[in-house]
Amino acid sequence: MLALRLGRGARPLALLRRLLVVAASAGVGFLLLCTLGWAMKHPVGSLPRLLWCLIPLAATVQLAVAVARTDPGTRPRTGLSAVGLGPARLTTLAATSTAVSCTLGSVVALLCFLRLRSDLTGTLFAGQAADLLARNQPLPLAAVLTLLALVPTFATAATGLVMRRHTRRTARPAESTDPAPAPTGLPWGVALTTAGLAIETYASRGGGGSTPPLPGRFDGSSAGVLAGWSLTAVGLALAGPGITYLCGRLLQTVRPGAIRLLAGRTLMAEAHGIGRPLGVLCAVLSGVFAANSLYGPRDEPPFGPLTGLGAALVIGCTAATLLTAALETRQARVPTTTTLHHLGAHAGLLRTAAAVRATAILAIFAPLTWMVAALAAVPLTT
């Protein structure tokens, strides 16, 4: 009940972020139900189609966790433990809010699916759409409930684990003034990215050089290419904080001035917060570029009606997660910004430092995205 009251009294920006979680959950639920409808008429080859749905599912879970971390109603504050809102209770509130949002999205997905099936006086479809909706067959209730419970379950569990660590770290009485430690996941990220590209190369050669079908066509998909791309995405996510940290350190080399020093120190301090979303965004954009160069312009698109929805979910959730992480780091910088203002730093200095940070990130991650996309597309096109 407290989670519902906090949600009702939240600010418009917080409500907008929660509505994004609801929309993403509804989109993933609809994809899963359409995959179920296709599997009811085409049992063979339905597993790769279900595996493709794990990508937007993971992007939605990541967005839900990021929104929970920036929720004003579950943010640790001084004195809340005295009224019974300690780290454990705040974690429960955050997980409950995430469960409510994701469950609402799953309900919306079910209503839309049933309406399109004409079970709720919807519109009749024929051809491939009828195969996706399984209009002439009864839906298995257990399978429908299981698929719709995937997003709320994974999102709630991930939110609970992340918020438990986050609230305990934030609720400590004395904060350390030491600089942020360097992220340690860069070597593992490089290794996993290399392994993922190698798996994609091996899977494409095993398929005789043919391009892997995208998850909207009705002839199956390449599980090996999907596994390789997923491993590459995990590697870039692990390497993202380390790359961001190194980017901040490079800004401070060769006699830095006040702007470069401030921008570099800020990037180093925020590497853990924005580095991982940057790595995931790099993986998603590299996958989009690789697919574009792989299939190229064609008279008939190589994907079906649900591929656009899945791609929009992945790109939208990833971009929204990065913006939410940037908002979280901005909130964490408020005491530092206030101190700088008291010391006489003008607003133009802070805006220039922010522009330098954005330029440095773009200068590092844009070539990295292009390089990963090129390496992923070369073995598939030869």
By DSSP (H or I, 4+ residues per run), the number of helices equals 15
- Give me the Rg, rounded: 23 Å
Q: What is the number of domains?
A: 2
Largest sheet: none
Say what oligomer this is.
Answer: single chain
Structural class call reads mainly alpha
**Looking at the structure, what is the overall shape?**
globular
Unreliable segments of 5+ consecutive residues: 208-221
**Mean of residue pLDDT?**
79
- Helical content stands at over 70%
Q: In angstroms, what separates the terminal alpha carbons?
A: 58 Å
Order of helices and strands: HHHHHHHHHHHHHHH
Strand fraction equals: under 5%
Outline the structure in words.
By secondary structure, the chain is mainly α. It has 2 domains: 1-170, no CATH class; 182-382, no CATH class. Helix content is 74%, strand content 0%. The protein has 15 helices and no strands. Helix 2 packs antiparallel against helix 13 (307-332), helix 9 (186-206) packs parallel to helix 15 and helix 10 (223-251) packs antiparallel against helix 11 (258-269).
